[in-house]
Each structure stands twice: as structure tokens, then as C-alpha cells.
Write a structure and sequence with these properties.
With 156 residues, the protein is an alpha+beta fold. The chain contains 4 helices and 7 strands, in the order ααααβββββββ. The relative contact order is 0.14.
């Protein structure tokens, strides 16, 4: 490995050609990547909202029960605080309780990350999602500006 580094330092054009050839081989391989063996999966859409500030943590956990009622589970916490780290409140779900549900009420102006990460009960399929929101008097407002649509790549 050290010899390769020495050669690349002495011959930068040679090193660039090695990298370029790897990129070309990778691009050609990606274009030929077969997706016909992937199973056809209809991903469920689950939306959990609290409509007004003043909702309790218990109300949010109960509203999220729609996930388990639909036959799915959560892989991570439902929600956690935001502000430079993984901050309180941290809420689990019925199927994956984090701690006893805290005695907590959401207030206008708070920012939280909603991330249920819904999975099948056997954890073989799922979707990881997260949404940074701010609690408002009318409910929640998304602080994301990127499109939430799935992007399809590699179609003919």
C-alpha cells in the first residue's frame, strides 16, 4: 500500500487515471444494476399530528398508536427535542417504550424532531423518516424546505 502511495505521489497523472478508470467502471456497473429482483413494496403512509399547542406527551403516544394498529412497529423513538443534540422530551411508542411517558405539555415555539421510523414487525422492511417541526398555536409547522417526495433513479 505504501508503494502505491509513493507511485501516485511521483506520478499524479497516473493516479488520476486510476481514479478515473474506477469511476468509469462504477458508472457502467451502476447502469447495469438489476432492480428486477427487488420486491415490489407499497410503502405505507402514516401521519401523526397534534393539532394545538398544549397537547400532552401521553396524547402524542396514543395518537401514534395508529402505527401499531396498522400492523407495523417503530424502530426508534417517535419524537425527541431539538437544539444541538438528542434532547428531551424523548417519546417512545406502545411497541417500543423509551421510558415511562413523561408528564409533559408541548408549548408554542418548541422545536422537536418527529421520527417514527416505521418498520414491519420482523424489521426486514421499513422507512426512516424525520421531520423537524415547530409547535405553533395552529399545530405544527415543518422547518424542512426540501421536497419529501421519493426520487426514482436508474429508470430506463
Amino acid at each position: 500500500m505504501q508503494r502505491l502511495a509513493e507511485v501516485c505521489i511521483r506520478r499524479p497523472v497516473f493516479a488520476a487515471m486510476i481514479v478515473l478508470s474506477l469511476v468509469v467502471v462504477g458508472a457502467a456497473s451502476y447502469a447495469r444494476l438489476g432492480v428486477d429482483r427487488f420486491p415490489s413494496v407499497d410503502l405505507p403512509t402514516v401521519s401523526v399530528r397534534t393539532e394545538l399547542s398544549g397537547a400532552s406527551a401521553e396524547e402524542v403516544v396514543e395518537a401514534a398508536a395508529i402505527i401499531e394498529d396498522a400492523g407495523f412497529s417503530t424502530y426508534d423513538d417517535l419524537l425527541h427535542g431539538f437544539g444541538g443534540g438528542y434532547l428531551p422530551p424523548v417519546l417512545g411508542s406502545r411497541s417500543r417504550p423509551n421510558t415511562p411517558t413523561p408528564d409533559f405539555t408541548f408549548r408554542t415555539g418548541m422545536t422537536v424532531v418527529i421520527q417514527p421510523n416505521v418498520v414491519t414487525p420482523n424489521h426486514r422492511a421499513g422507512v426512516q423518516t424525520g421531520e423537524l417541526v415547530q409547535v405553533t398555536d395552529q399545530g405544527i409547522a415543518s422547518l424542512h424546505q426540501a421536497s419529501r417526495k421519493l426520487r426514482v433513479v436508474g429508470e430506463d
